[in-house]
Structure formats: structure tokens, C-alpha cells
Design goal:
- The chain is built from 3 helices and 25 strands.
- Strands 22-24-25-11-12-13-15-16-18-19-20-21-23 form a 13-stranded antiparallel beta sheet. The protein has a 4-stranded antiparallel beta sheet with strand order 4-1-10-9.
- The radius of gyration is 24 Å and the shape is globular.
- The two termini are 42 Å apart.
- A hairpin with a 2-residue loop joins strand 6 and strand 7.
- With 449 residues, it is mainly β.
- The chain has 2 domains: 158 residues, Sandwich (Immunoglobulin-like), CATH 2.60.40.150; 282 residues.
- Helix content is 9%, strand content 39%.
- It holds the Pfam family DUF1005.
Length: 449
């Protein structure tokens, strides 16, 4: 499999120091007592925001030994690079624009509550960054009205671009329609996987879908160990399963709904307190082994989106009590869809779709007190994968990007494809129970509504 060229543009190591005025103005919010933030904008990409740490003015250097703290990340495909480079020729030099504010983020009566301190513009030359890393700026910049008088505020930042090649996969249809999956490279589409959507036999809680019936019975225990297969009263969606096969027909990954998606009492939605869940499985030692667990629910409030949490299940030689390592936790817009993203190298997961509100994630978190000790054994770093998911009622053919360092074999790629199918199917599983599902998702006619 040949990857597609991508570039990862990062902004990090932010800091701000402001000289102490002899007579400080009462109307000015000082960063030592109030947080600072900045807005980061790259042409044609969604605006990103980040907190800016304050450093006392007597410090002449950025603190030694401080780990690289990323504030924003932009993921650039080859077409993005071509468009940005072309625009820079006819519309002047391409620049990354940063506005620095003192005070808290947010708005009051439609007016921004932060006070603009100054703006910074960093010129970018992205030509050739698909094959080589480039640092555009690393150090302090003077900002504010006194920038040319030697008494201005100082803003520290690091801006760099580095190659981030990825494998790109595209479902040829909706996951519940058992589609083929193609690998995309430029204009070339090559089939690499097939998917089989099915229902587990609801009459036998330990029975897997027909495509997995040949597996040893010992593997079936994972279903009951990691999810709830018990009968639940009221409305529920259960038993969905999707298996990914290679071109020889061998199963190489699977996603199995192990906890039904159930409407909370007195409601027609799946609540955060009682989410449905999927187990992502990989073959190993003649049986299926759990690789990850995806939980999903329907958010309340104005967002009314699909909430999700994905955690990696450590390989602890069958220890069922090991804590999972949370790699992603966020919300997708139920109306517009968005990008499911696993990115372990930034405080902000760059959004490509308005309404896809990704929560900060600078390092994996454990669901158990001892989980951090497992992290050194996890090989996932930086950008891991993304999957584009459409909103409710729209035809969704998920596209999946996986970073090259995280794919060592066919099973690696298949696991991410199965995860993408699970998050896409969760959009349907979390639809309000007052709405009807398409017939492919309903084993019984009375579950259509």
C-alpha cells in the first residue's frame, strides 16, 4: 500500500510576557491575574483558539526543559498545499495570522470579552514540505502598540511543518450496506477490503454474526466481559456487527455492538450516563482479541450531537480488569457530521467542520488510577487517524485517514476501518427513538421506529 502525502502544520510553545508599567491602567486586564488566549487563522481553514501561558517579564528566555506544548494543528493534504501555494502567488505571501488577547474567552451580549493586545503574522513557504520538515519561526516576537519602541509585550511561539504521510481509505457505500473499501491515492482507487454487516442472533446471547461463526468459542467471552448483553426493558438497538475482510475473504477486523443503545427512562435518547458501546476486535492466536472500545451517546442541550469516547484496551495477557487508555473523547454534530479524530500531539484537535467540537487532548488519559503506567507501552503518537462521518439522514460513505507509522500490516489498517464503521453506525444507533431507521438496520420490523 502506498500512502498519500500530507503535511502537519503545528503552532506550539506559546508564551506571553508584558513589561510592568510604572502606572498600570485600571482598565487593562493584566495577564498575571487573568488568562490570555489567542486566535490562530490559516486561510480557508477553521479558526482555532488556544490559551497563552504568562511568563514574568524578568525571564529573558523561554523556560528550559519545557516539553513541546502544541496549541493548534492544521492537517494539509496535497490538494490543500497546491491551493495554498497557488493562492500565495496571486494574493501575496501566505501567512499564519495570530491575534493575542488578554482576559477571558467568550462573548457578553455579542461582544468579545477579551481585549486585543496585538497581532502576529508568520510568513509560510509550504513548497516542498511534503518531503522535508521546515521551521518557520521559533522565538519571541514583539506585539502591541509599542512594538517599535523596545517596551512592547513579547509573544513566544514555534511554527513548523513536517511530512505526515497517510493511508487514505474510502467506503464505497454506507457501512450497513456491506460495502467495499477502497484505498485512495490521487486518482487511483484500489479495492482493499470488503465489509459484512449483520445481526447477532438475539435468541442466543453468545452467538456471533454468521461471518464469525467459525471462530473458537473461547473468543465469545470477550463480548460479555466488555459489554452488557443482558435483556433491557424499553426501546433499544442491539446486535449490530460489521466484519472487515481482506481480498482473500479472510476476516481481519470486526466491530461488534456489545452494549445495546437504550433510551433512558422517560426519554427517547441514549444518555451519556448509559451509553451504548462497541468492541473493536483483531485476529490473534487463532481467536479474536479486543483492541479498542467505543462508547457513544446523544448529547443534550444546544449541541444535540453525537458524544463519543474511544479507549485502547491494553494487551495484558487476558487480564480483564486492565484500565483502558482514552485516546479520543469529543462530540460530532448530529446535523452536519464531522471528523472523528485521534490526535495525541495537540491541545486542540483542528476542526474541519463547524460544529465538530473536539475536546482538548494533549495526552492519553486512563479510566483507572494506574492507567498512566500503561502509556509507555503504547506506540501511538501524534496524528493517528481521522474518519469523516456525515450527519443524520445523509448518505455517509466514511473516508478514513491513518498515519503511516501506525500501519505495519493489513490488520492494523483494518482495525481503523472497523472503528470508522462503528462511529458511523453510532450516528444511527443514537438517533432519537422517535425517528425511524432504514430497513438495513432493523432486524425486526417493529424496531423501525
Amino acid at each position: 500500500m502506498d500512502p498519500c502525502p500530507f503535511v502537519r502544520l503545528t503552532v506550539g510553545n506559546l508564551a506571553l510576557k508584558i513589561p510592568v508599567a510604572s502606572k498600570p491602567a485600571r482598565s487593562v486586564v493584566h495577564p498575571s491575574s487573568s488568562p490570555c488566549f489567542c486566535k490562530i487563522k490559516l486561510k480557508n481553514f477553521t479558526l482555532q483558539t488556544a490559551v497563552v501561558p504568562y511568563i514574568p517579564p524578568e525571564n529573558n528566555q523561554f523556560p528550559e526543559g519545557q516539553a513541546q506544548t502544541l496549541a493548534a494543528t492544521f492537517h494539509l493534504s496535497k490538494s490543500d498545499l497546491e491551493r495554498l501555494v497557488a493562492k500565495s502567488i496571486f494574493a501575496g505571501k501566505l501567512c499564519l495570522k495570530i491575534s493575542i488577547y488578554t482576559g477571558r474567552r467568550g462573548t457578553t451580549c455579542g461582544v468579545n470579552s477579551g481585549r486585543l493586545l496585538g497581532k502576529v503574522s508568520v510568513p509560510l513557504d509550504l513548497a516542498g514540505t511534503e518531503s522535508r520538515a521546515c521551521v518557520f519561526h521559533n522565538g519571541w516576537i514583539s506585539v502591541g502598540k509599542e512594538a517599535n519602541k523596545g517596551s512592547s509585550a513579547q509573544f513566544h511561539l514555534n511554527v513548523k511543518a513536517e511530512p505526515d504521510p497517510r493511508f487514505v481509505f474510502q467506503f464505497d457505500g454506507e457501512p450497513e450496506c456491506s460495502p467495499q473499501v477502497f484505498q485512495i491515492q490521487g486518482n487511483i482507487r484500489q479495492p482493499v477490503f470488503t465489509c459484512k454487516f449483520s445481526f447477532r442472533n438475539t435468541g442466543d446471547r453468545n452467538q456471533r454474526s454468521r461471518s464469525l461463526q467459525s471462530e473458537p468459542s473461547s473468543s465469545r467471552s470477550w463480548l460479555t466481559s466488555f459489554g452488557s448483553e443482558r435483556e433491557r426493558p424499553g426501546k433499544e438497538r442491539k446486535g449490530w456487527s460489521i466484519t472487515v475482510h481482506d481480498l482473500s475473504g479472510s476476516p481481519v477486523a470486526a466491530a461488534s455492538m456489545v452494549t445495546p443503545f437504550v433510551a433512558s427512562p422517560g426519554s427517547d435518547r441514549v444518555s451519556r450516563s448509559n451509553p451504548g458501546s462497541w468492541l473493536i476486535l483483531r485476529p490473534g492466536d487463532g481467536t479474536w482479541k479486543p483492541w479498542g472500545r467505543l462508547e457513544a451517546w446523544r448529547e443534550r442541550g444546544s449541541s444535540d450531537g453525537l458524544g463519543y469516547r474511544f479507549e485502547l484496551i491494553p494487551d495484558t495477557s487476558g487480564c480483564m480488569s486492565a484500565a483502558g487508555i482514552v485516546l479520543a473523547e469529543s462530540t460530532l454534530s448530529s446535523h452536519k457530521g464531522g471528523n472523528f479524530l485521534i490526535d495525541l500531539g495537540t491541545n486542540y484537535n483542528g476542526r474541519s467542520t463547524p460544529g465538530n467540537s473536539n475536546s482538548p487532548l494533549c495526552s492519553p488519559r486512563s479510566s483507572g488510577d494506574f492507567g498512566y503506567g500503561l502509556w509507555p507501552y503504547c506506540t501511538y503518537r501524534g496524528f493517528v487517524m481521522s474518519a469523516r462521518v456525515e450527519g443524520e439522514g445523509k448518505c455517509s460513505k466514511p473516508s478514513v485517514q491513518v498515519s503511516v507509522p501506525h500501519v505495519n500490516c493489513t490488520e492494523d489498517a483494518a482495525a481503523f476501518v472497523a472503528l470508522a464503521a462503528a462511529i458511523d453506525l453510532s450516528m444511527d444507533a443514537c438517533r432519537l427513538f422517535s425517528q425511524r431507521l432504514r430497513k438495513e438496520l432493523c432486524q425486526d420490523r417493529d424496531l423501525l421506529g
